Amino acid sequence: MTEAFDLPAYLGRIGWSGPLRPGLPLLRDLVARHAAAIPFEGIEALLGRTPALDPAALQAKLVQGGRGGWCFEQNSLLLLALRALGLAPRRLLARVRYGVPPGTPVPRTHLALQLELPEGPHLLDVGFGGLLPTAPLALRPGVVQPTPHGEFRLLQEAGGWLLQAAAGGDWLDLYLLGPEPQEPADIDAANWLVANRPGGLFTANLVASLAPPGRRLMLLNHRLTERTAGGAEQAALLEGPALGAALRDRLGIRLGPADRAALEAAMAADRPGRLAAMP
């Protein structure tokens, strides 16, 4: 990938102004700040568009444009930042297990990064929506690893590393990360599939999230849920202008007039795969 990346603009977007000494302490700060500043959102797919993944488009949308993106955008942007710091992350694809009945075959539709550090290989992921790990995770089987937003662990399984999140005293499967490095063409194919799958999560639903310090904000269609680090949860159903205000003021997603109108029309349409907003 030939890339022209504005590292100072990216660092400004995530609110980082400290020294840049590549290593695990810096990566912890960058991942946490990225997750707190750049929202996860799948609005492009809901509007019938396939997100562009080239460096110029990523920076125009996620850095300068006040928008967020999904895993292919978020982790591609992080990859560019890491390369600008002199690091060499690898792209990996995962099979999502979250919300999928056990034994259901699924394609590899999630992008994450692996980075070799003096401390060993680590997983970096700023694109798994409301359950993303907000710190780098060491690829060490069975070790419970704290992050600013909860505990995670990785298990070795046939096919790769299984990422799990602690949830209510149990462990919740998130995704199975394959070990094979992926080419940009592989990422483009997965990105296109997720953006164009009829009745898919993102083509049928409004999905967005953000992980500011001490809490997670998760939007599914009209339901906005706020969950604190201590486990307290509040939810609200948003209709009309309140939904647009929450996107802008709570989740930090800036939409222009044309996209706001298109989103209102998409939300008013009855689409196969639309998930109900629970009370």
Account of the 3D structure:
Belongs to the arylamine N-acetyltransferase family. This protein has 279 residues and is α+β, with helices and mostly antiparallel strands. The protein has a domain at 201-268: 2-Layer Sandwich (Arylamine N-acetyltransferase fold), CATH 3.30.2140.10. The chain has nine helices and 13 strands. The chain has helices at 7-14, 24-37, 43-46, 55-64, 71-84, 184-196, 201-204, 241-250, 257-268; strands at 40-41, 90-96, 108-117, 120-124, 137-138, 145-147, 150-157, 160-167, 170-177, 207-210, 215-220, 223-228, 233-237. An eight-stranded antiparallel β-sheet has the order 5-4-3-2-9-8-7-6. Helix 4 (55-64) crosses helix 5. The protein is globular. The mean pLDDT is 95.
Indicate the mean pLDDT.
95
CATH topology of the domain at 201-268: Arylamine N-acetyltransferase fold
Q: What share of the residues does DSSP label as strand, in percent?
A: 25-35%
Structural shape = globular
Report, as a whole number of angstroms, the end-to-end distance.
46 Å
Largest sheet: 8 strands, antiparallel
The total of beta strands comes to 13
Given the helix and strand composition, which structural class is it?
Answer: alpha+beta
Corresponding CATH superfamily of the domain at 201-268: Arylamine N-acetyltransferase
What proportion of the residues is helical, as a percent range? 25-40%
InterPro entries: Arylamine_N-AcTrfase, Papain-like_cys_pep_sf
Family: Belongs to the arylamine N-acetyltransferase family.
Organism: Paracraurococcus ruber
Protein name: Arylamine N-acetyltransferase
